[in-house]
Amino acid sequence: MVFSSNPLSLSVPEAVFESWLRDSGYIEVLDRRTSTSTATTSSSAAAAGDGASAAAATATATATGFLVSSFSGIVTILSLFTFNPFSKLSTDDFSGQTPSWTIAFFGSFDSYSFPASPSQARLRVHENVKRYARNYASLFILFFACTLYQMPIALFGLIASLALWDVFKFCSEKWDLDRYPLTQQCFVRVGQCVGAIILMCSNVQMALFCALAISYAALILHTAFRKLTPAKQRTRGRWK
């Protein structure tokens, strides 16, 4: 979709305009606009280089363009670690239905492209995190389960810790510890200490750290390279 130029649009703050695009289901317009402007700049530079008469000048321009492109790509990748990808995430993003894994989440080969600038990468990350929050949560659970499978001691420690709390709950109900708050608090503190010791000795924290690291890396790469797609499905009759 192409918007005609409007002088009045200059008075609209960028945050308000982005919010309107997101609410209207046209947030992908910003992604396409950034890619288009970058492609136009690259094409202009290439055309200027073709007009050079000397082969040495053309080679120099090509090498310079390659270095600039490489440096820009490195800056874009490093910029992914300079902001919080969950800053715009809310609890409402987990309340909807899980997007399709094949069509919506993974998509096709054409659904991915290298972000043209740090601002485009930031836009993609923030928007895709909101859209696929339930998918990323499921991936974290999957990675954590795989990590525990590779670390049987950690799996045993986690199960033992959960079993300890079930035993405590059973004993609390059987002995009616609610009538003795001080005794109940003592049991809670002892249970917490024992549970923490079990988790530390079985390296559950290491399994959790590995799952978090892998999940975060997968999230950053997917959100940055995944193109923004229309958030709302539009019927053909609407565009006729």
What does this molecule look like?
With 240 residues, the protein is mostly helical. The protein has a domain at 11-32 and 68-151 and 203-233. It is 70% helix and 0% strand. It has helices spanning 14-24, 28-50, 55-79, 101-106, 118-131, 133-150, 152-174, 181-201, 204-225, 236-239. The longest helix has 25 residues, at 55-79. It starts with 13 loop residues before the first helix and ends with a helix. Residues 39-52 and 233-240 have low confidence and may be disordered.
Sketch the topology as an H/E string, one letter per element: HHHHHHHHHH
How many distinct beta strands? 0
For the termini, the CA-CA separation is 13 Å
Q: What is the helix fraction of residues, given as a range?
A: 55-70%
Structural class comes to mainly alpha
Task: Return residue spans where pLDDT drops below 50 for at least 5 consecutive residues.
Answer: 39-52, 233-240
Shape: elongated
Number of helices, where a helix is a run of at least 4 consecutive DSSP H or I residues: 10
Rg of Cα set: 26 Å
Overall pLDDT, averaged?
Answer: 79
* Biggest sheet architecture: none
Main location: membrane
Family: Belongs to the PRA1 family.
Function: May be involved in both secretory and endocytic intracellular trafficking in the endosomal/prevacuolar compartments.
Protein name: PRA1 family protein
